[in-house]
Amino acid sequence: MMETVFELSQARKSFGAVHALSSIDLQIARGERVALIGASGSGKTTLLRLFGAQLAPDRGEVRVLGCNPLVLGERKLRELRSRLGYLPQDLGLVPNLRVLQNVVAGRCGRRSILGSLRDLILPAVGVRRRIYELLERVGIAEKMYDRADTLSGGQQQRVAVARALFQEPAVILADEPVSAVDPARARDVLELLTRLSEEEGLTLLVSMHQLDLAREFFPRLVGLKHGNVHFDGKPSELGSEGLSALFDLGDKAVVL
Amino acid sequence: MKVPGTFWLGKRLAVVALLGVLLVSGWVLGPRIIQLSEGADPFAEAGRFFGAALSPSLADENPSLPQDARPFLLRLGESLLRTFRYALIAISLAVPSGLVLGFLASSAWWPGGMRYGKAPVGRTIMRGMLRLLRWGCRFLITLGRSIHELVWALFFLSALGDAPIAACSALALPFAGTLGKVFSELIDEQSQGSRSTLMATGASPVQAFLSALLPSALPEMLTYTVYRFECALRSSAVLGFIGVETIGLGIRQSYESLYYGEVWTQLYALVIVVVGVDTLGARLRDRLNRGATRKAVPELSKLESGRSEARLRRTAPRDWIVRGGLLAGMMLVLISWTNGRELGINMAAEQRDARIGRFLTKLTPAPARPENSTASGSERIEALEGKGKAVKDWAVDLWSRNGAEALLNTVAIASSAIVLAAMGAALLLPAGSRALARGEPFGVLGAASRWVHWWWSGVGFLTRSLFILARAVPEYVYAFLLVGLLGPSAWPLVFALALHNLGILGRLWGEVMENQRPEVPRHWIQSGAGRVQSYCGSLAPLSFNRFLLFFFYRWETCIREATILGMLGISSLGYYVSIAHNWLRYDEMLFYVLLGVAVVFAGDVLSDWMRRKLRGEIASS
Prior knowledge:
The complex is a heterodimer.
Chain A: E1 4-15, E2 18-29, E3 33-37, H1 44-51, E4 59-64, H2 74-82, E5 84-87, H3 99-104, H4 113-121, H5 125-138, H6 153-166, E6 171-175, H7 183-200, E7 203-208, H8 211-217, E8 220-225, E9 228-233, H9 240-246
Parallel strand pairs in A: 3-7, 3-8, 5-6, 6-7
Antiparallel strand pairs in A: 1-2, 1-4, 8-9
Helix pairs in contact in A: 5-6, 6-7
Chain B: H1 11-29, H2 42-51, H3 72-105, H4 121-146, H5 149-160, H6 164-189, H7 193-200, H8 205-239, H9 247-256, H10 260-290, H11 305-314, H12 320-338, H13 349-363, H14 377-384, H15 388-432, H16 450-472, H17 475-486, H18 490-515, H19 519-526, H20 531-565, H21 573-582, H22 586-620
Helix pairs in contact in B: 1-15, 3-4, 3-6, 3-8, 3-12, 4-6, 5-6, 6-8, 7-8, 8-10, 9-10, 15-16, 15-18, 15-20, 15-21, 15-22, 16-18, 17-18, 18-20, 19-20, 20-21, 20-22, 21-22
């Protein structure tokens, strides 16, 4: 029996009158690579944020790495979050800080205030070495001391990946990592994430709307529609009818 | 593309309303612009004064100075250095206090920034207490800002005697308030992405504040500090008009002796220093925005990773000019604290205490004063008891005698000045725009003739220089000179305020237009519109809300400034403040100052409300 990393049972979440997620059941096991697909507004980001212990469900239960975040105190909650690598859509880099300083901020959750200040201003040799190796792995080692806003979009994405890796996370949650880059870069990023996930046994949960890439890189697809799980299975099980239903295309044929 | 409207007003209605404000204020201030004594010819005197602009003096104009008197240029240099020194000391006091105030006035670091489920009771209580603390800080900030540095200086010099530290603290107080306000706004306006990402990975709000918000706000905070230093220079110069030994004192003395050549030399010197700091600030902003980039990546392939990292670190791109500049700034602060005239109060402790005691006694409303001036705190409070009625009568009397009229005049001066400044800026803007005032507006092919290119570049350069010069001279100096030429009516003050603010609005509005996306105005030019048509039809309406935003910000500043310009002898609040000060009636002085505070508070609240509305409008468009 595989260990379950994420689990939602009967989870609902609404923002005011908008039902983002209605009654979802979903389980993701350790080491799985899952793509969340669906049209804009189908609830992908909300689902990611539930799993990231950033949002609490209105009803139902969410379990993250085996615990219910709702019963945790502030300290434990932060500890839990520090084990969830998170790549937001806007990357969340500080543009006028160096790559090193952006990456080192990834481990704030495990440092005291003074410790994180020291990391920011005068990081220890060991920390610098470790970050250099991480940057080597994501392929931008020579940018370590450059300002984040001097990097290209694809390179900035790698900084965000390195920051998530520096957390030494159990999982990586990525929100639309390939929506703002050109097709070649998109492929690069997904290759990088899949490789890292294979090497470290990381669970990978990525939201996206590029079906071709999702099919190519992920053994499991979860399709969301109007806040419900509409499809959950292998890419080969998702036919063209299922697809047009998922994206509300009506009778229009889907070219695969 | 949709041109965004102004909240509940249309643009036309807004413009008509502002013109109405100008008319009403003008009616309040009355029609007499020139108010000289019988028989005086304003044009002859003005001709002599402006004629002297071309022949500034390099030596004393006073023929009867003793042989061993210090020469004019030396005195000028010294007073300029002192102006610089006091401004530096003031800013070095204001920045740390502004940082603390700004931190406490921002809510970005409060616990529970990323709420999950129900907040525990302890945290709710904590946030409530922090909210109280924040309100306290905001009150302090507004109080410090709403009393003009000149008024603070009158208080401090009366209480402590003629000590440089009194003048510097008077400058530092309102500057700390302004810095605190702007710092907290800059921090709150940073993009929240990096902050929420760090909190999503387990950082505490304080850590996210220190690692994400503060670093990204730091460049703007730094350039704003340089701008504030430029303002401190101007204010330090103005302190000379009430007797502090800065360049303002020299300007006043030379002007009153009719040595116009000397006046111009000192004005030029002041303008050069202020424009120098202005340019430095612009350079700094450029460099900080661009950031240092690496020239070449060192050869790393043959090294093991530890050594490669060390080599990268050694060759990391660093902006030595910015670093050197910051270091030099700190050195200058250190030098100003330690060199030159003793800063502290140069008298014995008992003498000083007695002086402060006397000051406090005179500060107490006359009907409620204790019998002896050495009274302790509890005796003073006792003296106040039961005198409530008498104090109230005293205040009502002051209000109906001068207060109400002074208040009205102050608001009218500020309002007509800012509307005049806005009209001037709106007219001059296209000529000062870097995108429009050039041979090829917005890069669209222009006339082939080289003369056309030179003509437009010249127009642009001259207009921008006019803006710079207009704002380099403090409004108080303009007002002093204009009152001398036109006589003591309210209009010289209006013109002085308008001229200075023309320069500031010209710059702020110009930046708004530069930050506007160029597609729409370029499209106008491409479809055959002229420069002015493109400005009136696309740039101005597109920028209208942001223009209003800065307009209200400057209106608020004008009200603050107008409260003190009256010190030059026109019946506004400042006039009664300075009269009361001259008669050593500190209680009355405090009354008029508090009236001014009330006006500035009201203006602050009103303009803050308007600006929030406008920001919402801008964000949603």
